[in-house]
Structure formats: C-alpha cells, structure tokens
Design a protein that fits this description.
By secondary structure, the protein is α/β, with parallel strands linked by helices. Helix content is 59%, strand content 14%.
C-alpha cells in the first residue's frame, strides 16, 4: 500500500456516477475549437445510421414481395425482385463502408483529444511523479491513458451507434409488426389483443433481458478484476525490459520469471472467474438467439394455415418480430461490451479524479506543505525549512540557507535528506514546512544521478529537454568534450536506445554534458561520485568553474576531494542520527542534534 503522503482532500463520492463523471471529462470535445467539423461528422454518422435503418425497412418489404412471388410462381415478378435486391445490396455495401469510415474517424479524433487532455494534465506540475505518493486507484496511469482511453472512446461511439440504430429499428418495426399481425382473440375469450405479435416481442425480449441481466451481473466484476491483473503483468514486463541490462548483470532472470509467473497466475485465476461469468450468459444467449427466428413463425403459422396470411406476409411478420426483438435485446447483446466500457471508463475517471485531488491539496493544504515562492532577487533562500518523508516521518528541521548567484555550495550529510532537499527546491517534495524562495525568471537545471535518456538521435538526447535546432554542432562537440565523452561526437546523428547502448558512467557524463551545453543560471548536481573516477572529478569541477563562471552550483557529491571547489558546505543530518557534524571540512566528535540538524560552514 502506498504511504498516505500528501495531505488528504475530499475524494469524489461513490454516489457520483461513473458515467456522469466520464461524460464531464470527455463531452467537452464537442465544444472544442474544431466543434463545427466534429458536429458535421457526427451529423453524417447519424444520417448514415438512418440510411442503414431505411435499407433494413426496404429489405423487410422486399422480403414480403419475394416470398409472394415464390408463392404465386411468377417468374417475371421473381426476376424483378432479384434486381431490386441487387440494388439494395449495392446501397447497403456503400452505406456500410461509408458509415465505418466516418465512425472510425470520429473514434480516432475523439480519442486523440481525450488522450491529449489527460497527457497534458498528467505531465503538468509533475503530477506523473507526485501520483506515486498519493493513495488512490491510479495504478499504471500510462496504460490507462493509452489502452483504457482507446477502449472507452471506441466503445462509447460503437454503443451509441448501436443504441440509436436499435431505437430507430424498434420504433419503425413496432408499427410494421402491429399492422401485419393484426389482432387475435385471447384463448377461451372473445376479447381480442391488437398487434399481439408486438406484445409477444416485448414479452420475449423482456424475459431475455431479465434473465440475461441476472446471469451477466458477475461479468462486470470479473472483467474489472481481470483488466487490473493484465495491466500488472504488462507493467512488470515493461519494467523488466527497461532494466534488462541490470537484470542480466545481476542474473535476476529467475526472479523476474517467478514474478511474471505469479502475475500470470493472477490472470489465470481472473480468466477462470470471467469464464464462469460468461458461461451462463453465453448459454442463455445461444438458446435465445436460436429460438428467435423460429418463435414468430410458430406464433403466426395458424393465420397462414387458415389463409389469413400470404407466405410473404408470414415471412415479413417473422422478420419484423426478429428485428423488433433484437432491438429490444440491445442491453443483453451489448452486456459484455458495456462491462468492458464501464471498467475502462472507471479507470480513466479514477486517474483524472486523483490528479484533481492533487490540485485540491495544493489549494487547501498550504499550511501543511512547503511553500515555494519567487523573488526578483537573484538568490535562493531556505527559511525554517523542515523536510518529512511521504509517510510523515521527520527528516530534518530548521534548515536556513541564503545562496547568492554564482556561489558554489557543497551539500553533505545524509543521502536521503540531501535528495529530499533537491526535490523540494524542484517542487517535487511537498512534505514538510517552511519556505523556499526561488529567483524569478532564472533557469534552474537539476542533474539526477541517473539522467533520463530518451530513445532517438544522440543530438536530441544531449539537448533534452530543449530542441536540438537551438544549438550548433560546435556547441554540442564542446559540451561532449567538457564532459569527457568527445568520442561520442561522430555519433550525434545516430538514433538508438542509449539507455542500453551506453555504459552507466557514459550515461551520467552525457547528463553532465547537458549542463555545459545549456549553461543554466542554477545547477543542482544530485551526486557526481558515481559518474567520475576520483582522478577525473577534479578535472570536471575545474571545467565547470571555467566554462560556467556565473552558474550557481549546489552539489551533493560524496567526494572529499571536491571540498576546496566550493565556497560553503551545508551539512544535513537526519532526525535521530548520531552522525557527527562537520563544518568547513573539519570533523567534530560531538553527536548531531537528535532532532535533525543543518549547519552551514565556510
């Protein structure tokens, strides 16, 4: 279970229906800047659906004429009906093909809009990072955005089309069937029931809907559970792929295989439960569907035998009954798709709601969080800063620091506290109290120990997150030279997966090269000890001083050989530690304050 981490904010109530929340998230698509194009395409889809219904009605009357021609043994009428059917067939193919094209365009365009909105929200204000520390139903957000949005949007349009089609067909064929079937007396009574086949169609579909609903209720729960299991396996395999080198070097394949086997065991269990849920509904649907073409003929057969109906009327009535019952059976026929849609829509909504919770926390929990403000002065100030873990355990108290532009500060002490401090300055660590004042309008660059290297051309990786067109080749070569990896210069236009192609130290040096290239006003180095050998770290620091004389450096390096490159030293000890405090590079035999300490030395 995730730590509680961020202060609590009221979660959306469960009574707030998922359909309503999903609609609130996705329906603004029809009010976007392209609303007139979208409205035109939607109208086209509706008109084509009406065209499909019109062709079905025409086919119904053709069916009547065709069987009447057979009964009359009229070859001329039969040939005329064949020509009419050929025309109906061509029009049906054309309307169906055009309908599919319009529907798929709308599905893709709507999915693009929703995906863009969610990615924008996910990738703003570091929500993709902060969600890790917030309790809630937002696991695997990448899969929710990529896969669940696809399923939900495609199913929404598909279900809306089929429902519209069923409503139109049902409305039309109620009138057709009532006219064809006429009235019939109740058994043992002179009271006649008008349009009795319509009544039977409603009874047939109603009984099927009730039984189908009762048999299909477990399907929603099992589908939701199975999708979660599938997502867990995909995430595990993706993580193994991303860390394949580390797994191979540590011979961790056995552990990964066992983890994958265990996760697939969960899938198998969920699959079996879904199979049992499908068993009842599929058995019933098979019997229901096979009986539907026969039942109306059996009901209307007495009138045909008595001569009150022609063969064409009998077949048209049977087809009209089947069309009406099928339209009324829409909820049962679409039960599986509805269950899948509901699951995916719920996963999207829960991710969206939890991202909104982060905004609520930002608005309503300022007193319980680290405050980040901006100043027009070219200075960084920490005022009575206290850092906690996401679970609320204190790390350090009373950090006060004033750094002017161009200074070099070495941050020493507990590794977790140092990392939390850097993340707090970056706005990624809200747990604690106090204030951080940042210089307004000055670029800050944070270099983690393991920099992110996107897949693509090396020049794009080096310039990340800036566009590569911003820098000349000479600048790129100089940055690589300063970082000690000029041997990569001939490969600037090569595209590769650099996380796997380059050794770890080269990856870290590539991250350092970004500082030389982009020359930020403020640079925060998480830990350079892993990036360079002891014999090279002095050279790198000398290069930083030479190439970036106006850049403020705050480094969390562990190398004692770097101390003389810094103007000051900030010593951070975790609450309750018994480590000795160090000031200006000198050791003390006195224990640290058990409440946590921060000391600045010259």
């Amino acid at each position: 279970m995730r730590p509680s981490g961020l202060p609590g904010a009221p979660r959306p109530t469960r009574s707030q229906h998922a359909v309503r929340r999903f609609a609130a998230l996705t329906l603004p698509y029809w009010k976007s800047e392209r609303r007139w194009t979208i409205a035109f395409v939607t109208l086209m889809l509706l008109l084509l659906t009406i065209g499909q219904v019109a062709l079905v009605i025409w086919t119904s009357y053709w069916n009547r004429g065709f069987f009447d021609a057979l009964e009359a043994r009229s070859l001329d009428e039969l040939m005329r009906q064949i020509l009419v059917f050929a025309l109906i067939l061509v029009l049906t193919m054309a309307v169906t093909a055009l309908h599919m094209h319009v529907k798929r365009w709308l599905q893709l365009d709507w999915r693009r809009w929703v995906t863009t909105q969610l990615i924008e929200q996910w990738m703003t204000r570091s929500r993709h990072y902060r969600l890790q520390f917030l309790q809630g139903e937002h696991d695997n957000p990448d899969q929710r955005i990529a896969e669940d949005v696809r399923i939900a949007i495609e199913s929404t349009i598909s279900l809306a089309h089929s429902l519209t089609y069923s409503l139109l067909v049902g409305w039309i064929f109620i009138a057709i069937l009532a006219d064809l079937s006429g009235s019939t007396p109740l058994p043992g009574s002179t009271l006649e029931v008008p349009g009795y086949m319509v009544v039977l169609a409603f009874a047939y579909a109603g009984a099927g809907a009730l039984l189908g609903y009762l048999l299909g209720r477990p399907l929603v729960r099992t589908t939701n559970r199975l999708q979660s299991y599938e997502a867990n396996l995909r995430f595990s395999l993706a993580r193994a792929r991303e860390n394949s080198e580390a797994i191979a070097l540590t011979h961790g394949e056995g552990m990964e295989r066992r983890a994958a086997t265990r996760l697939f065991g969960d899938i198998a269990q969920g699959w079996d439960r879904q199979t049992l849920a499908y068993l009842g509904i599929v058995s019933f649907s098979t019997a229901y569907g096979n009986l539907m073409p026969i039942f109306p003929i059996l009901v209307a057969a007495p009138k045909f035998i008595a001569g009150a109906m022609t063969l064409g009327l009998l077949m048209q009535a049977a087809q009209a009954f089947e069309r009406l019952a099928s339209a009324l059976s829409w909820p049962i026929d679409k039960l599986g798709e509805i269950a899948t849609w509901r699951t995916s829509a719920g996963r999207i909504v829960s991710l969206h709601d939890d991202m909104l919770r982060l905004d609520d926390i930002d608005r309503h929990s300022e007193t319980a969080r680290i405050r980040i403000t901006h100043s027009t002065r070219a200075e960084l100030e920490l005022h009575e800063l206290a850092l906690d873990t996401p679970a609320g355990e204190p790390l350090v108290r009373g950090v006060n620091l004033h750094v002017r532009r161009g200074e070099r500060v070495l941050v020493a002490g507990d590794a977790q506290v140092k990392l939390a401090l850097f993340k707090a300055v970056a706005g990624l660590w809200p747990w604690g109290s106090g204030e951080i004042r940042l210089p307004e309008g000055q670029e800050m660059m944070f270099l983690p120990q393991h920099p992110f290297l996107p897949t693509g051309k090396l020049r794009d990786v080096l310039c990340y997150p800036q566009p590569s067109e911003r820098y000349a080749d000479a600048e790129l070569h100089r940055a690589l030279e300063c970082a000690g990896i000029d041997w990569l210069a001939p490969r600037l236009d090569e595209a590769d997966d650099w996380n796997h192609v380059l050794p770890v130290r080269a990856q870290q040096r590539l991250g350092t090269a970004r500082i030389f290239l982009q020359q930020p006003a403020w640079a925060f180095l998480e830990d350079m000890a892993g990036a360079f050998d002891t014999k090279d770290d002095v050279g790198i620091m000398e290069m930083l001083h030479h190439e970036l004389p106006n850049t403020t450096l705050l480094s969390a390096s562990r190398h004692s050989s770097l101390t003389h490159f810094f103007d000051r030293r900030l010593e951070l000890h975790r609450l309750g530690s018994r480590m000795s405090k160090t000031s200006a590079g000198e050791r003390s035999d006195q224990p640290a304050d058990v409440a946590g300490s921060a000391e600045v030395g010259r």
